[in-house]
Design brief:
Helix content is 53%, strand content 8%. The protein has helices spanning 15-24, 30-40, 47-60, 66-71, 81-87, 92-102, 133-151, 171-178, 207-222, 229-242, 249-256, 260-269, 274-290, 297-303, 309-320, 324-330; strands spanning 9-10, 45-46, 112-117, 120-125, 160-162, 182-183, 189-194.
């Protein structure tokens, strides 16, 4: 079953991109900034809300190239975990592959496209559900900015852009910005790059941290909204809190904007318990971390929010029937 657009959402870290644009343009926009701050505490933001925020900015700053300008304000942290996965990649190709794999962490409206054809690498989005022109502009421009940040180069340009949107009166702006022909009313939404760009080195590399982040992203990906957005929001909040210690229901309830009693009832109605959710996520991450011989058991304990290794060991034995050390040796 396909998700309806109402279930589609975006990581709230992307809201910082909008705040950065307001700062760059010296726009006071007191009410809009207040809304951005309030939404920033959410675990996810509905895609319709994102579109509305962009339209609100357009009302304040009605310029033809608005989406392109917003996208150029991007910094890696605006893409959350996805941004850091890119930074800690080795090559541009690896970064874009991770972008393709984990893009639902940023937004889950539609999946990405990433493929190679006769010396060309194609990056884009499925168009099974339509977005808005302004939102498309922000994401494509942001992707170009991200590539520039990763490589430290401003000359990385596509050889073709394809957009499903209608040709705007100011289409020359797009051809100038992307430095290539732009095909509107296309059946796809893509940027085409020469394949040799994929071997370009990423400036900032940290393979060890990259591996940790990738495993965290994998666990988060499994927690994204499918048929139950509320349950997914709870899982997202648990993962966000875990690095600071054992998540509590009160913390999670506050993070997703519910009363603790309301959260308890919502989980009970689904036949689930809060502790069960926490443990299932911890167990999934624990197995991945244990496959990394560079991570010690005390480090894994801290990553999973346990007070110490002994508490982690007892919990893991309850989940798996064996100790973390024995599980690591067997796997």
């Amino acid at each position: 079953m396909k998700n309806s657009s109402s279930a589609a959402s975006i990581d709230p870290s992307a809201l910082d991109l909008l705040s950065s644009f307001l700062d760059q343009e010296d726009l006071q926009a007191v009410d809009l900034r207040t809304q951005l701050r309030e939404l920033r505490t959410s675990s996810r933001v509905a895609i319709e809300t994102w579109w509305q925020l962009l339209e609100a900015i357009h009302a304040l700053c009605p310029r033809d190239d608005l989406g392109l300008k917003i996208g150029q304000c991007l910094q890696p942290h605006h893409a959350g975990v996805l941004g850091y996965l890119g930074i800690y990649s080795t090559t541009l190709g690896q970064a874009l592959m991770r972008f393709h794999r984990f893009q639902p962490l940023l937004h889950n409206l539609v999946p990405t496209v990433f493929r190679a054809e006769a010396g060309v690498v194609i990056v884009g989005w499925s168009i099974e559900r339509r977005s808005t022109q302004l939102s498309d502009d922000v994401f494509f421009s942001g992707l170009m900015r991200f590539i520039s940040l990763l490589t430290g180069r401003n000359d990385i340009k596509p050889i073709l852009m394809k957009s499903p949107n209608s040709p705007p009166a100011h289409r020359a702006l797009y051809e100038h910005f992307y430095g290539c022909p732009v095909e509107f009313l296309a059946s796809v939404s893509e940027l085409h790059f020469p394949a040799h760009f994929m071997t370009l080195a990423v400036n900032t590399q940290d393979p060890y941290l990259s591996g940790l982040l990738e495993r965290q992203a994998e666990a988060m990906l499994q927690a994204l909204p499918k048929l139950d957005p509320l349950l997914s929001d709870v899982q997202q909040a648990i993962l966000g809190i875990m690095q600071d210690g054992a998540p509590t229901m009160a913390q999670v309830a506050m993070r997703i904007g519910l009363a603790e009693r309301s959260l308890y009832r919502a989980l009970e109605a689904r036949g689930m318990g809060f502790k069960t959710l926490v443990n299932s996520l911890r167990f999934e991450l624990a197995k991945d971390y244990l496959c990394d011989s560079d991570l010690s058991l005390p480090e894994i304990s801290l990553l999973l929010g346990f007070a110490d290794q002994s508490v982690f060991t007892r919990a893991f034995r309850q989940w798996s029937g064996t100790t973390p050390l024995k599980w690591r040796k067997a796997n």
